[in-house]
Structure formats: structure tokens, C-alpha cells
Amino acid sequence: MKKKLVSVLLSAAMVATLLAGCGGGSDESTDSADGAASGEKQDVALRLWGAEEDQALLQSLIDSFVEEYSDAANITVELGVESESTAKDTVLTDVEAAADVYAFASDQLPDLVNAGALQSIDDMDEALQAYTGKSVADIESANSADSVEAATFNDTLYAFPMTADNGYFLYYDSTVLSEEDVASWDAMLAKADEAGKKVAMTLASGWYNASFFYSAGFTTGLNDDGSTSMDWNGEADYTGVEVTQAMLNITGSPAFMAVADGDISNQIASGQLCAAVSGTWDAAAAQEAFGDGYAATKLPTFTIAGDQLQQKSVSGYKLVGVNAHSENAGWAALLADWITNENAQQQRFDERQIGPSNNAVLESDAVQSNVALAALAAQNEFGVVQFAGQNYWDPAATFGEIVAKGELDVNDTAGIQAALDTLVEGATAPIN
Question: Is the pTM above the cut of 0.85?
């Protein structure tokens, strides 16, 4: 591939497009283009931020990237540590000083776009095609539709999908529960109670308890001012009261265990559980505890107003974006593409068992035979990309805790409605 690209890479028009045409142009960029036209190799300096646990893998990908384009440029890439979970806060502290390329969690996308911290990938389509032979449409079709949706804001692609494994599903012990048992909360809790076991889920978290409301057609959203839009105290496919009653019927079972956020693995290890709602991060704990019975599947259905409704979940993704203030935005886009393409995602899975967004890797036998990732893929069909402002999280957690503790009477519709009104009032409060 490298040899075929050399003539294109040294084209002044294409270099000008890459270096200056993507929103980060400068006199220095023009000089670089003129140098390339005269046959001189460009000097390209980039900075990349990624998670601490990804440093070795990213350095390997950087080395192969530098080698791939060595005939076109003298490329140096400075690798720094920045967690995807905190990337937005760090970038927005000083956007112009942030890395050229950085990874971030998908729910941070709207804030980063609104702050002008991301270069539109759509605007770099010509440059990407010239250098990689791939259009933006090719990148979109190579990745799962939900991951592309997570990387898109206002109908514009702003990031490259990197992973699709930040969601939750159901682990279970198949020596206690059958596939039929785990198909519904009702059957699962009844069988667990009969076996003297528990089924665990975190409810004091707006990431987990939102699943019941999203299942019933309710929404959360992020307003332009950073506040949250939310309708849980109203009516969608069902009423918010009916959703809460369904949750109370689950928590009222003697086999249900409400677990604090982050404590699922400890409870699995305790031996009390035969099933738990969690994600890939608890795979090792579930496999060790359940042994030969280790299994996982999509979330069950739950009973609401006499109907069985498939429980949805929040699907989280990790994305890689290009800083809109990068002086080498085109080269930054190439690096972002390189660390998220099919080969890179295959390497992530092989080395770290990271769930891919790339369809080819996702559909491989190795991924499909991975118990946790196969369950996640099945659940992602019912996944929702969650957007909410900072005032959402505490009221949502408090509401979930009230439900988990049984502080609401399932028959007291007025009391439930009041709790929902309090939740929505707090969650949608303006950002000060």
C-alpha cells in the first residue's frame, strides 16, 4: 500500500488539502506543501492522547503508522496519557493546547462539538480518500450502525468509532438458570429464589436505571446550554408510573439484590449470585464464580402493565477525534483512522479482548465465541446512546436508590408520580 501512495502523498494539491484544507491551515502548512511539491519530505509533528492501559498498544500502532507513511513525511507522534472518561474535561480546559488526536467516551461528543473541539470527519473526505482509498461512507459502512450513530452529531460525523463494548447485559450461571429462565425477569427471579440465590443489578445509577424507561419509549437529551431534557414523569408507550411499578415489582422479589455501582464483581465473587447485570469488565469475575456454568445473554424482558417488554440498555462507545485546532488536521485524521481501522481493532481484541465496532472484526469467529462480547453484541440491538447533562446524574441515582430500597409503594400512584416529578425537576434544572 505504501508504495502505491507515494506519488499521491507527494502531490502538492493533496498535501495542501491535508495540511491546510481541514480547518487547521496556516502559513507553516503552505510552506510544507510547497516543500512537498519540490520533492522534500515534510516534517509532521502530532500529539496523541489515549488511556493508560492502551499505551503499549498505541505505541505499536504509532510505529506502524510512521513506517507506512515514511516515504511521504518525517512523522513524529508524541503519545500522552488521558482517560477516555476524562478527555472532555481536559480538552475543554484549553482546546488549542489539547492533543491533535484524542480518544473519548461517546457521551462527550455533543459538548466537544459545541465547544469547537472536534474537526468534522465529513469535511476530510477528500483527504482520506487520497491517502487511504477510503471515503467517509466506507468508514461508516465498516463500523456498526450504532457506533456510527454515536460518532455523529447533527447529521455530521465527528469521530472515528474505536470500540463498542461499553454496555451491559446479563451474566448467569447455567447450572442454576436455563435459557428459558433468563428470558424474563419474572421467570429468572422465581427460579433464583427457588435455588436460594440472588440476581443483582445496580439501580442507584442513571446509567443503569434508565434502561427501564428507555424500554418504554422515554428519552433523555442534551440541550444546547448543557442542561438535560427528560420526560420520565409523563407518558410514552407507557406511563412513567407504570415503569416505576415494574421496577418495584422486580426489586420486591426476595431474590433481587440491589448492588452499588462498581460492586458487582465483589458480589459475584461472594457466591450469592446466579445472575447479574453488568458489562465486559466483570467477565473474569463471572467466569471464575460460575465455572462450567459461565454464560451470558441479552437482558431479559420485564412485565409492565400486563405486557412483556424487552429491556433496553445504554450502549457506550469509545471514539477517536481530531482537534479542530490541529495545525496538521489532515495528518491527524490519517492517524485517527489508522488507530481505529480494522487491523487496529483486531489488534485490540487480540491483545486486550476489547469489543470492536468494526463489522468484520465483530463478526469474526473469535469475537463471536467470546461469551461476554457475544452477549453484548446481542444486547446492542436494543441499545440506546445516552445523552444527558451534569444535573441528571445525582437525581437519577437518588431515584434509583429509592426504588431499590422499596421506599415507594407499588400501589401508591400519587407517591410514585411525586417522586418522578422530583426526579425530572432536578435532572432538568438549568446549568448554573
Answer: no
